[in-house]
Amino acid sequence: MLIFALFLFIIEHVSAQKVCCYQDVLDHLNMSRKSEVYSTTRPVQDHTHPTVLHLDLVLIAILSVSEKAQTFSPLIWIQMSWNHERISWDPARFCGITRVSLPKEFLWKPDIFIYEMVQMEEVLKMVSICKMDVHKFPFDTQSCNITITSVIHSVIELRLVPSSNSSLVTQFSRRLMQTQGEWEFLSLVVSTETIDYDYGHWDQITYTISMKRRPLLYVINFLLPVLFFLCLDLSSFLISDHRGDKLGFKVTVLLAISVLLLILNDILPSMSNRTPLIATYCIVIFALMLLSLLETVLVTYLMEKDSRTLLENAEQKWNTGMGGDFIHASTIGNGSGEETPHELLPVAEQGMDSDVLLLLLAELREMRSLMSTLSPGGKTAYWTRLARRTNIAFFSFYITTVSLFLMFMFLEWNN
Ligand SMILES: *[C@@H]1O[C@H](CO)[C@@H](O)[C@H](O)[C@H]1NC(C)=O
Ligand SMILES: *[C@@H]1O[C@H](CO)[C@@H](O)[C@H](O)[C@H]1NC(C)=O
Ligand SMILES: *[C@@H]1O[C@H](CO)[C@@H](O)[C@H](O)[C@H]1NC(C)=O
């Protein structure tokens, strides 16, 4: 019984309270169906009143940046608010309802347009033009503009006002930023401008997004390997010039660098006002290594020239003076002049006396003097000495140029 009474009380109490729904508000506003009154014209009572549009832009993510296409695609969120002078209701009459949501086709909307936009991909994501300066790549900072303006409405009809200042939008964006990827978000700066055309003035809000590239990947993938190859090339000065290995080594290093240059071609745009520093870096290092390769070719050629003349000399000596000795020796041993030098040893084994030993001694002396002419200290090693001097001079030049150049690059990239 008591439960039943309570139930009744509840029903009575509830039915006594006024019930409203959002539809009541819409019915009151005559907005139950799509009404043209609200959607076709600018919502002002007096046409001389400009509509004030408060705008806020927040950057949610920097999705991709393309240096080649000079575009970047940010994920942005634009919030706009304006006063619709024809729509109002008294919340007290509708149980305190202060907000209703409507399909956007029901109402007038400002024709907001973004200058730089190439394509709107989804609701928030867009691709926009951004003129990039890759001079300092990969240590560059880029600023991209997002300029918001109206197409039809001049300042007489529509004023654009940013609702937050630069420090606030930067703060919002920092908080909302989901991923930063390759680019580190620096700041979002708001500026307003009124553009004058012949037929009126137009308000324009520019949001400038500044972002800094994280260079680590490029340093690891590109700058350091090139530097390592340069070090390898420098170290090749320690390899002896007499052998062909040095030439092969240098050619290999040069080929490795050219493969890296192909990667660079993929990254950088073909058009650029100023030569990117990284291109200078590559070209100069490549040129230095090419020069060092040519120097090695020259040095190898000079040394070859020397050893060729030495060999010729040696052969000459062999054929004239020494050959005679051998024939003489074999004459002593066997008594026959037709013996070749190969048969000398068996002759010696036959237990010949000290004459043979003396002859061997003479022969050794001859060889020693021949070896001394082959050695660099000898008079005939003119080209070798020249090659050595060239090597030292070039190495000093190379080290100095490389140090100066790297210092220059460091300063240029840093400032
Ligand atoms: C809605 O329409 C009725 C008549 O069709 C009109 O009397 C009333 O004023 C309108 N309400 C508004 C808010 O315009
Ligand atoms: C970006 O907007 C600012 C402010 O209006 C302007 O000074 C700058 O030149 C613009 N940059 C580009 C690349 O258009
Ligand atoms: C930006 O706006 C906030 C609040 O509106 C204010 O506290 C701050 O001083 C403003 N900053 C600048 C640089 O005007």
Question: Please, could you describe this protein's structure?
Answer:
There is one protein chain. This protein has 415 residues and is an alpha+beta fold. The protein has 2 domains: 38-87 and 104-214, Acetylcholine Binding Protein, Chain: A (Distorted Sandwich), CATH 2.70.170.10; 219-413. It contains 10 helices and 9 strands. It has helices at residues 2-16, 22-28, 36-39, 166-176, 216-235, 245-267, 277-334, 344-349, 354-374, 382-414; strands at 51-66, 71-81, 112-114, 117-120, 126-129, 141-150, 158-162, 183-197, 200-213. The chain has a 5-stranded mixed sheet, with helices on one face. It has a 4-stranded antiparallel sheet with strand order 3-6-9-8. Strand 1 (51-66) and strand 2 (71-81) form a beta hairpin. Helix 5 (216-235) packs parallel to helix 7 (277-334). The chain is rod-shaped and about 145 Å long. The two termini are 89 Å apart. The model is unreliable at 1-15 and 323-345 (pLDDT under 50). One 2-acetamido-2-deoxy-beta-D-glucopyranose binds next to helix 4.
